[in-house]
Write a structure and sequence with these properties.
Largest sheet: none
Distance between the termini: 19 Å
Order of helices and strands: HHHHHHHHHHHHHHHHHHHHH
Shape: elongated
Helix content: 55-70%
Number of helices: 21
CATH class of the largest domain: Mainly Alpha
Mean pLDDT: 87
Radius of gyration: 32 Å
CATH superfamily of the largest domain: Tetratricopeptide repeat domain
Number of domains: 2
Number of strands: 0
């Protein structure tokens, strides 16, 4: 291959641009930390009716520090509470709110009546997608302190969920602290919320022990919990623990693409590029690279790896043939560079000819001109240099030199 002083500058500039644009993505983000605030206890409350019956038949919180109130529904409010219950059962949320507000304004209603009404009003507001209303009513039900332990603590937990859903982490964490301290709950499905909210608040070092507590207390650990813990380790800069966990998850689920991609990202963060490439190549062989960025990331890794041009060419051509890899300027530029570095000049020129018209300016045309000039194809080089000038280049002098020669 004939070379000139123009060629080295071409290669360095173009490869840097291709790799910068094709940086590997970070590991998959964990699922949202907010669990659904379904009105489970509201359903239970309706089944019991508005007779003031407590949940004593099945004490959910045997370790609670709060003594469950003995006061039930007042005789004066019994009919209205039953109407409230019926409206909730019919999903007539507007009517629920109307009756609940009447009860809350009634001076003869006791704390149980009002707390019951406020709690159902909160659930009705939630079902009407009025989150602020839901928070306001449920906070009122908690403040009245008239519900039995089961419904009282569930109200606290639901309010924590609603604040977490709105990314009001401080309020959510304050309520969760109260909930666990007063209820004595050790339910892992509830414990995990504290870890998720701490993660949401970017308090990763605090999230780790909270998530571990939930995971260790659970017999059947959801994948999302372990993914969040792994992510917390990574975000906290505890790469060794994150990688070890990612390896464990990936080994347990070899066909789960997300787990494999997470491990790839952690290997890249810890400088274990060869392991990252091995996983992506395995996914490619299995036909699991189905996104443009996945082919682009593997392409970039091979180009970053000494002697990886041949594999990069293979990846790019396969991605283009399958239609997964977008046939854009970046792709053809990377292909041109991979061919050029592996001394395959003619296919490099062909790739440059495809890349140049797709560039926003004339830089790729100028690179094409340099390659053509280096191969002694002066007339073609001059034409490419003229096209470079017409689109605009930073180094006009270099383009004019090629044309002049």
């Amino acid at each position: 291959m004939k070379t000139t002083t123009h060629a080295p500058a071409l290669v360095a500039l173009a490869v840097a641009a291709a790799l910068a644009a094709a940086a590997p993505q970070s590991f998959a983000a964990p699922a949202s930390p907010v669990v659904s605030a379904e009105a489970d206890e509201c359903q239970r409350e309706r089944r019991r009716g508005a007779r003031g019956e407590s949940a004593q038949q099945e004490e959910r919180y045997p370790d609670a520090t709060r003594t469950s109130p003995t006061e039930g529904a007042s005789a004066r409010m019994g009919r209205r509470l039953n109407q409230l219950n019926e409206a909730m059962g019919d999903s007539d949320y507007d009517k629920v709110l109307e009756i609940a507000n009447e009860i809350l304004e009634q001076p003869r209603a006791n704390d149980y009546d009002k707390a019951f009404a406020a709690n159902l009003a909160g659930h009705a507001s939630y079902n009407k997608d009025d989150m602020e209303g839901a928070k306001r009513y449920i906070a009122q039900a908690i403040e009245l302190d008239g519900l039995d332990n089961t419904n009282h603590f569930q109200a606290i937990f639901m309010l924590a969920q609603l604040h977490a859903q709105d990314e009001e982490s401080d309020q959510a964490l304050t309520l969760l602290e109260r909930y666990f301290n007063e209820s004595g709950s050790k339910d892992p499905k509830e414990l995990v919320l504290r870890g998720q909210v701490l993660y949401q608040a970017e308090r990763y070092d605090d999230a780790i022990p909270a998530l571990r507590e939930a995971i260790e207390a659970s017999e059947d650990v959801p994948d999302s919990w372990t993914q969040t813990l792994m992510s917390a380790y990574a975000q906290a800069g505890r790469d060794a623990e994150a990688t070890a966990m990612a390896e464990q998850i990936a080994a347990a689920a070899p066909d789960d693409k997300r787990s494999q991609i997470n491990l790839v990202s952690l290997y890249l963060q810890t400088g274990q590029d060869a392991k990252a490439i091995e996983i992506l190549e395995r996914l490619r062989a299995a036909g699991q690279l189905t996104e443009d960025r996945e082919y682009r990331n593997l392409m970039a890794m091979h180009l970053n790896n000494e002697g990886g041009e041949a594999r990069a060419i293979e990846v790019i051509n396969e991605g283009l043939e399958s239609g997964v890899l977008e046939a854009n300027h970046q792709t053809y530029l990377a292909l041109a560079q991979a061919y050029y570095f592996s001394d395959q000049v003619e296919p490099a020129i062909e790739a440059y000819r495809k890349a140049a018209p797709l560039d926003d300016d004339g830089e790729t045309f100028l690179n094409l001109a340099r390659v053509l000039y280096g191969e002694g194809r002066e007339a073609e080089a001059a034409e490419a240099a003229r096209q470079a000038l017409s689109k605009g280049v930073s180094n006009e002098q270099d383009a004019r030199r090629i044309i002049g020669n």
